Amino acid sequence: MSNLKSHASDAPSSVRASSNKPSTQKRILDTAERLFAKEGFEQTSLRQITQEADVNLASVNYHFGSKKALIQAVVARYMDVFMPALDEELRGLDDESALTTLQVFEAFKLPLFSLNGIHKRGTERFLRLLGFAYSETQGHLRRYTQSAFGNVLQHLLALLHRANPKLSDEEMFWRLHFVLGATVFAQVSGQALIEIARAEFNYEVNIKTVIEHLIVFIAGGLERP
Amino acid sequence: MSNLKSHASDAPSSVRASSNKPSTQKRILDTAERLFAKEGFEQTSLRQITQEADVNLASVNYHFGSKKALIQAVVARYMDVFMPALDEELRGLDDESALTTLQVFEAFKLPLFSLNGIHKRGTERFLRLLGFAYSETQGHLRRYTQSAFGNVLQHLLALLHRANPKLSDEEMFWRLHFVLGATVFAQVSGQALIEIARAEFNYEVNIKTVIEHLIVFIAGGLERP
DNA sequence: GATTAAATTAAACGCATGTTTAAAATGTGT
DNA sequence: ACACATTTTAAACATGCGTTTAATTTAATC
């Protein structure tokens, strides 16, 4: 599924053979991910990425083709883990006799936390990438998600309808988008919020705490009669 | 409160004397507002604004000093109407004996709709401007709002606490930010959503409908025990 | 070890941005 | 009508961006 320029044979990927230094591709991908999650896609320049990754400016276009393609590659690395995991969790809910909204949203927790396998703070990074993907107008990302994982999202919608049979299609439509808004915003402004919270309430806050609060909130909003 | 360059005497503002054409300042302000609300602050260039306003490129810097100052002037025009109106509505709730969350959020409705006095679609524009102000990193705008209208926002927080005495400070903190997120997102993605909704449900959607749905949703999320 | 393919590099390209400059035009007060 | 302040204008400036080019270095293949 990788969109990388293949250049005939693509044997020596992933890790440089003799050196203990990761390959140029991986260095770009890792640095881009870190900076994208920190500042957003548009705010991060290729010069910034290549400088911090200690690779040549032109290598991004050589290996990925364009900045857009690099963005997609960064996001795809998480999507390819998250979406199948979510899919499995949602399937587990199909047999549930008395399905609740909270159950549906809690099905997100394991897939989200599994992203910490990709990176130490993978959950946080993924959600922030997602946030920027929606708040900046990265139409190509939305289209990619829709076409690659549209079936999973439809499954989600069906389960929410089952948990809230009294809600009209129209109401569900709006509320689901509000849910998305609260989620995205929480992540994009997340770091600032965490710092404020830390100062104000004098206790440690982490991404897990935020997600717990968020799930309760969005379930409450969505279930409102 | 205007940050405009005064240049000694500032007599001939607002409207050009002999011509029936609005002054350069007003033309810039109106066009900038329209484009900012449509595309966001960063996505809108001064060249785009001045071209559509039919004024010279340099006049923005002459009259406003910088793009940042122009952004602030555009937002301030709405804030200066909205915040006092909200303040008054909130004061009206001080004497309420059994205050509910829904009441607090419904206090936003009149101030919001009053913005249609500034422009035909003032409510929509204001909310979208607000959305971009938060989703783009316009730190100076956040600081301006906080310093100019911080007292009103604190009043709001106090009322919400009164309506939800069982909610801890910490929970209120998070939920209020989720509320903000849902609101902002609804507006920034608003036009796209309205069009989707129109196509999907085959009926007319306007900003008022969105706000009605939103208020119910956020009240539900915030009240969740 | 020669030959080919892949990867890296420094430099430039083309374009767009916000801002500044200095001259010209317009308006104002006496 | 003059002198002065204000506004408008066209042009250039400085900077940053993504991308492309062409030469060089490195790696793989026979």
TrEMBL record, chains A, B:
GO terms for molecular function: DNA-binding transcription factor activity; transcription cis-regulatory region binding. It comes from Idiomarina baltica. Residues 22-82 form the HTH tetR-type domain. Pfam families: TetR_C_30, TetR_N. Residues 1-25 are annotated as: Disordered. Keywords: DNA-binding. It comes from the Bacteria. The keyword Nucleotidyltransferase does not apply. Residues 45-64 bind DNA. This is TetR/AcrR family transcriptional regulator. Gene3D superfamilies: Tetracycline Repressor, domain 2.
